[in-house]
């Protein structure tokens, strides 16, 4: 590494605190409202944050400001789609929070951004605060819908409830697709506390149940005979096996404790995009059937077939597919993918005197 000297040693970056009235913060493109690319609003204009110096203390402040849970990661903002618009500015850089601030605008930061592009946009991951849960069912993804209000859990009346609302709950809980929504319950599974919500009307696109229009909290004529019951598919894990890195190989999904493959019927670039996004990999190389076999054939169950994604989903479980285990495939049709942004790179170090190669270093992405 070569030493770097400042040409203007007497000049210092202009660091300051935003006036509180001039800025807000949001997370864009994540799986839920507590994850995504960090954007701030200044004087009515939304822009991104440069990730120079960005760290966990900065994310802690973002999570606190948005009413989310604990900070869990500092991902690149480029992982989240849609990407920032070309005419959208990078508004701040060199954010330096102590971790105790209530808002990002209270942290020291530089407003005059001159050397950052959208390839350096900052991201944030926070836990989702527990404001909705499913109770009384087999596992956390099935049960009576309960919401938390004024630090007390209560139920949701079935009046106005539909599958779109169930989709929001399943997504908010990190579960799979909504498969059932019905009126609850027998006496053993009825709620006993307040009935907080009724006439909930969701489009299915909301990030949380609290974002859906509803009647006034606690104002309804419902009884616990009308409590709402929702069932979601259990979330499933993905992995790529048989490749050189974790971002290449035959695709397998975990269901009922057993790994199985995915059939390539209907499989295309949009589905590949979702898999790579879920695994935190870059863009994929779409492989021919012959090339996919280089990763070997599966030997167990074929869990999924006819998978169809729009490309906007954050995980494969949000895409349409046949029921688990229903297919007309064999293992010669197993899906596999390769990732052109995550292959090891090599650097050759040259002896400048003899012009000979001293060493070859393989750089493998850190996961």
TrEMBL record:
Alphabetical list of InterPro entries matching this protein: SRCR (IPR001190), SRCR-like_dom_sf (IPR036772)
Annotated S-S bridges: 97-107, 202-212, 309-319
GO CC list: cell surface; extracellular space; plasma membrane
Coiled coil spans: none
Domain SRCR residue range list: 25-127, 132-233, 238-340
Keyword Disulfide bond: yes
Single Gene Ontology MF annotation: serine-type endopeptidase activity
UniProt keywords, alphabetically: Disulfide bond, Glycoprotein, Repeat, Signal
PANTHER family: CD5 ANTIGEN-LIKE, SRCR DOMAIN-CONTAINING PROTEIN
Name the UniProt record assigns to this protein: CD5 molecule like
Gene: CD5L
């Amino acid at each position: 590494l070569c030493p770097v000297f400042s040409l203007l040693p007497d000049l210092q970056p202009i660091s300051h605190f935003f006036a509180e009235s001039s800025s807000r913060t949001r997370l864009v493109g994540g799986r839920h409202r507590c994850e995504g690319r960090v954007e701030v609003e200044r004087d009515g204009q939304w822009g991104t944050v440069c990730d120079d110096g960005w760290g966990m203390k900065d994310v802690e402040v973002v999570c606190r400001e948005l009413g989310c849970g604990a900070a869990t990661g500092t991902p690149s903002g480029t992982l989240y789609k849609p990407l920032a618009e070309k005419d959208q500015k990078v508004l701040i850089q060199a954010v330096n929070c102590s971790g105790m601030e209530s808002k990002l605008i209270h942290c020291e930061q530089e407003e005059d951004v001159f050397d950052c592009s959208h390839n350096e946009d900052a991201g944030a991951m926070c836990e989702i605060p527990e404001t909705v849960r499913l109770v009384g069912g087999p596992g956390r993804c099935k049960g009576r819908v309960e919401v938390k209000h004024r630090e007390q859990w209560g139920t949701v009346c079935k009046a106005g409830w539909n599958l779109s609302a169930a989709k929001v709950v399943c997504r908010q809980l990190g579960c799979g697709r909504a498969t059932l929504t019905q009126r609850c319950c027998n006496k053993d599974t009825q709620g006993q506390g307040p009935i907080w919500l009724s006439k909930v009307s969701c489009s299915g696109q909301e990030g949380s149940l609290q974002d859906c229009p509803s009647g006034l909290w606690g104002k309804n004529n419902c009884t616990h005979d009308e409590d709402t019951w929702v069932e979601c598919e259990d979330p499933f894990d993905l992995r790529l096996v048989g490749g050189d890195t974790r971002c290449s190989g035959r695709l397998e999904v975990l269901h009922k404790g057993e790994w199985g493959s995915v059939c390539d019927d209907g499989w295309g670039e949009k589905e590949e995009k979702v898999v790579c996004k879920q695994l935190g990999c870059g863009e994929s190389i779409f492989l021919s059937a012959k090339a996919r076999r280089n990763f070997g054939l599966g030997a167990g169950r074929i869990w999924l077939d006819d998978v169809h994604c729009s490309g906007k989903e954050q995980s494969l479980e949000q895409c349409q597919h046949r029921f688990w285990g229903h297919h007309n495939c064999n293992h010669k049709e197993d899906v596999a993918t390769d990732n052109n942004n995550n292959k090891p790179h090599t650097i050759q170090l040259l002896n400048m005197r003899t012009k000979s190669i001293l060493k070859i270093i393989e750089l493998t992405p850190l996961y």
